[in-house]
Amino acid sequence: MGLGGPQAWLLGLPTAVVYGSLTLFTTVLHNVFLLYYVDTFVSVYKISKAAFWVGETVFLLWNSLNDPLFGWLSDHQFLSSRPRTGHSVHITLLLPADYPNPAHHCPSPEEMVSHFSLALSPGRLAGSRGGSTPWGVVLPNRRLRARRSGTGLSSRAVVLARVRALGWHGPLLALSFLVFWVPWAPAGLQFLLCLCLYDSFLTLVDLHHHALLADLALSAHDRTHLNFYCSLFSAAGSLSVFASYAFWNKEDFSSFRAFCVTLAVGSALGFVGATRLLRQRVEAAGREPGCPELAADSGLCGEEVGNITLGQYLWQLAHHRNFLWFVLMDLVQVFHCHFNSNFFPLFLEHLLSDHISLSTGSFLLGISYVAPHLNNLYFLPLCRRWGVYTVVRGLFLLKLGLSLLLLLAGPDRPRLLCLFIASNRVFTEGTCKLLTLVVTDLVDEDLVLNRRKQAASALLFGMVALVTKPGQTLAPLLGTWLLCFYTGHDLFQQPPRTPVVSAQPRPEPPAPPPAQAPTLREGCFYLLVLVPIVCAVLQLFAWSKFKLHGRRLRMVKAQRQNLSQVQTLGIKTV
């Protein structure tokens, strides 16, 4: 009786809450990982510089390739699975006399659907005397049979497969998170293996979780509702950053290690419980006729369609114009997000250190992890009302306007600088969260354009990541090069007289000449304002070419909805 109350409460949770809670169990681990993994290996495990850069280089390559690799392994079956034979409805179509013999010419699906629809029109069925209609001639052995058949995998089976994958990969992600904080191999080898192992399971969890956003709901309203709870739980998970400060101690690592074990155990149990609840919800929905929560797809592919190779899939993406314009814009967005993350402490140090305390700077750094998710709680209702395209375009215009305002105001406005540095990071990170909804719309368009049997959600998310991940590497490289080019200050070059780590206290280094201090500060200021201006201009141009919004988006949604309701006919030549 005591367990009945909590169990009934859990079973009564909305599907959106259960789906969003999966973000909590990822965020509590990933934010701690981002903050401490470098410091742990450099300061605690004493990894060598060569081993560190080798590990980071291999990690960058693997981080770029594993998204499309895992996406292809997960979803290529949806592109090529053959339909199962089901109940058949045989419809004989009378072909025109000049229609090519199917034995020598295999008509395309578009031709067959066109002829099929034309033959069923009232005028064609009525016909006319004297053979005025070309469909009035019956040719031997030249018929098209339309067979009603199910697809190789139902959408409910696809969703269940993704939920089961999350149930396995989530606990493995928590386990791979733990291996960072216990030395079990030489530092260089452990660094390389831990990074690749952790990133592999993180990619698998992210791909399946994002793919569920496209598979669980079709309408923009339902998807923004799911994303709302993702942002809410992400904000809650970011609180682990503040809690970690109480346990972080390089000299006594045991307390921080125990804190990480607690996070990992809680995350693993959360993944198991949430995926079990979600699986029960999906199975129950499948038993209810006409349940609107599951997107059930079936494509216009017949049994004669061969396997789609990776090259053919890439060719299809290369001709998907909205996909190309989106990844161009998203590449700039990923670059800007990581530029803000990498240079946030530098901007605080050189632009605001004389005006804010150290504790205030630490608070701004911590709140920058939480605020983007809370900010999305406001923007998602706007997306529901005005559309994601309009909200994202407004954020680009806001970024451009604030950057131009600060450029005109100059670097001697500390309050405006503080507001801009914080809002620039918050709005940029928030835009990244909203773009997940745009990728789900691209999944819908890809399904309709290529007449797929199932929506290849994880694969498309993986291909987006393949194109945009280089922005993560370009951000620190281009930022440091621009700063060095403008000011002559190399962030990686340490003067021999001021070592970073010293066993004995040294006297304070002499202050730099007065001519150098404003130069570095001025360089940071122009880097702070000019990068957002250039990014905003490029993004507004690419976004203006993106046409999957308004009327076209409604048409794509309607076509996918029709595919899910009609259980499309698989047409084959006999």
UniProtKB/TrEMBL annotation:
Subcellular location: Membrane
Membrane-topology annotation of the record: Multi-pass membrane protein
Key words of the record: Membrane, Transmembrane, Transmembrane helix
CDD domains cross-referenced by the UniProt entry: MFS_MFSD13A (cd17481)
A GO CC annotation given for this chain: membrane
Membrane-spanning ranges: 16-38, 165-182, 188-205, 226-248, 254-278, 323-344, 356-374, 386-409, 525-544
Listed InterPro entries: MFS_trans_sf (IPR036259), TMEM180 (IPR040035)
PANTHER family: TRANSMEMBRANE PROTEIN 180 (PTHR28658:SF3)
Name this polypeptide is given: Major facilitator superfamily domain containing 13A
